[in-house]
Structure formats: structure tokens, C-alpha cells
Amino acid sequence: MSRVSKPYEIVERALELSRADGCVVIADEESSANLRWAGNALTTNGVTRGRTLTVIATVDGAQGTASGVVSRSAVTVDDLEPLVRAAEAAARAAGPAEDAQSLVEGVPASPDFTDAPAETSSAVFADFAPALGEAFARAKAGGRELYGFANHELTSTYLGTSTGLRLRHDQPNGTLELNAKSPDRSRSAWAGRSTRDFKDVDPGALDAELATRLGWAERRIELPAGRYETLLPPTAVADLMIYQLWSSAARDAVEGRTVFSKPGGGTRLGESLSPLPLTLRSDPNEPGLESAPFVIAHSSGDDSSVFDNGLPVGPIDWMKAGSLAHLITTRHTAGLTGLPVAPGAGNLVLDGGGERSLEEMVASTERGLLLTCLWYIREVDPATLLLTGLTRDGVYLVENGEVVGEVNNFRFNESPVDLLSRATEAGRTEKTLPREWSDWFTRAAMPALRVPDFNMSSVSKGV
User: Which GO molecular function annotations are given, in alphabetical order (predicted)?
Assistant: First the structure.
């Protein structure tokens, strides 16, 4: 084994090798453990380990500072110098970087920077796996088949710079997705959870929830396309709010290209987006949703900059009491737009609604639809943030406070910004798993929303 093998040593050695005017090195030490099952039986399980090293070289020139970024996996000490030289060559071959800034400095070092990386293992499922086996037995006895997977990842990120930053963040990330199907596969129901350690996930409770939904689906009702009062569960709200956040770069808004652009110029900052007193916010220290307290940028774009690596990330309200409060800025785009620096964060919370559960909201519904989740979401029009997508794994008709059956699936056409302006009720905020974006964004807490006229634009034949 190489004597330079620890992540912090790899970072330090890469910085020593640098001949550029500036250098940022990011080492991501990744481990994962997973379980998969089908037909009430475990099918596979596995554990993986990996390392990705990203070197960002900056080179000053007469016309400005250029940057070059090179990332490689499974890096050993013998790979370091070629990797550093490749980043420097990329910087010298590039033109001046538009987002060039002085590298961040003055951030106190992480006390655990030299510690070994955190790792996950199959032990994370020590309590979950037996409970899952019990759920299989109950599902089989009840005439249900369970399918799904559980995945736990732990990434230790080490960030070092030529300006003296030495930062480290450990990010656990767990997801559970569970499908229950009738034996003839004509009925399907889904539930998902986000977790840091699988200690707060109860597969038995999820199976019971899915059994109820499969029972609702025994009666089938066909409905035409149209506008319906609709209850969006937290998972569906999360998918919509995450896309809204991803679309809230300040520069795009100032340049008139997004739903947050003001007609005639400027942005909609300060405008009311919802009559409900809702606050959409991010906070690296949000309990149960903790994320990196500093910028980790492997590439640059309008909402991120490699020059901002290590910049502290604090709590921020994107929408406060229903009004647009902040848009995402890097140090560069903050300078262009005159807005405060507001880097994106790794979690998203919508709160300020009521205390009622989704079940209580159903009980007070005279007639409407209850969704399970959304999927295959795509953007139609950035100027209005109009999105299209499909419902999946259960759309249910509610009459006089009770679910009376399952209806067909739909394609929808809606803008999350417009939905906020029309929502008439928000329920209790709870941690949820966004189904569509769970490969990229899992740390969310949302309420259910009641929308009086959700646009189901056409009927879908999906399950």
C-alpha cells in the first residue's frame, strides 16, 4: 500500500505538486450499501467503495484568470502528478473564466480533516432487514407482493486549497423505495422515505400504508382530463419545489429568462408568490436534513462556481411568508446582479402551513383527487416554469371525506410557482423523499398542498 493513501494526504500531495497560480483539490471518499427485493424475497445485497479526486487549477493571465477542472476515480499517489498537470493544461488552454474570483480564504479548518473517512456497511441495515423480512411475511399472507430497494451512501469530502482551506464534511444519505402490487399486477402502490441511518424507517408501517392503498384500488373509476381539486402529498410537493429552486438562479432572472424575471426588467424579489404564509428555506444544520456547511463545487455554472469552493453556507429563506426573498447567486453573479451572495444548499424545507396531516386534509375534502407521486417531470416553458409529467402508483378519488376508489393516471401541466399562488391549504411539514429527483436531491421536508384546480391535461394509461 502506498504510504500516501489517506484522503487528506492525497489532497496535501496534490497541492504540493501544483505549479498553477491557484489550486483547489476535492477528494470524495464514497461507500454504499444496498438491499434489493422482489416478490417478497430479498434478491441482492452489496457494498461498494470508491474515491474521486477533482483538481481545479487557476492560471492568471493578461486578460484574466482561467480555470481547468479534471476529475478521476480510483486515484492513487502515482496518478496524482498526471492529474494535476492535466488540470493545469486545461486551464492554460482555456480562455479567461467569466466567474473568476480570488479563491476563498480565512475559513477555519475542520478539526477532523486528518481523520479517516467515514464508511457505511451492511450493518446500517441491522434493524431494518429483520423488520423487512417480517413485512414480507405479512404481505404474502395478505396477498401482496413487495418490490423495492434500500440504499445507504456515506461520502466524506475533503477540500483543500492553495489559500490554506482545509475542510471536511461527512454526508450520509439513505433512501427506501417500496412498491406493493396485487398478484395480477393490475394494482400498484408506492411509498418512499429519506433517512440518514435507517433507524427511523419502519417497513412494516409502510407495508400497512400500501395495503390500504391497494384496497382502495379494488374499485376502479375512470375520469376524463380536466381541472380537479387535488391533494399533493409531501413527496410530490418536494419534486415541484426542488425544480423551482433549481430554476432560481439570479443571473437568469435578471437577464429576463425565467419565471422570476420581472416584465420590463429586474427580478420579482419581494413579490408575493403565495397567499399562504409559506417559507421555502435551506439550512445546513436543519435537524435530520444536515448538509455541507460550505460550498463544494466540482464545476461552474450560473448557480455554482469552482472559485467559491469553501465559501460558508448558512441558513437562507428563498421565499419568506409567501414572498420571494432570495435567488441563488455565486460571488460572481452577485457582482453582476447587485444581489447578495446566496449559494445553494443541500436541503430544502417548506413550512409555515398548518398542523393537519394528509389524512385530516382528506377527511375535510368534499370531492377531489389524492395523488401518490409524480414522475417523468420535464420543463415546457422556462418563462413560466411550466412543467409536465405523469402521476404514478395510485390516484384516488375522495368524496365526502373518504377515498372511494382509484382513478386512471393523468399527464399534468402545471407551474410550481403558479401552484403556490393558487394553493388554498398547506398541511403539516414532514420529512419526505422526492421520487423524481431522489438520485440527485433527497434531503427535503414538505407539507401536503391543496390545489383547487390542478390541471390534469390528459389521461395516461400508466400504472
Answer: metallopeptidase activity
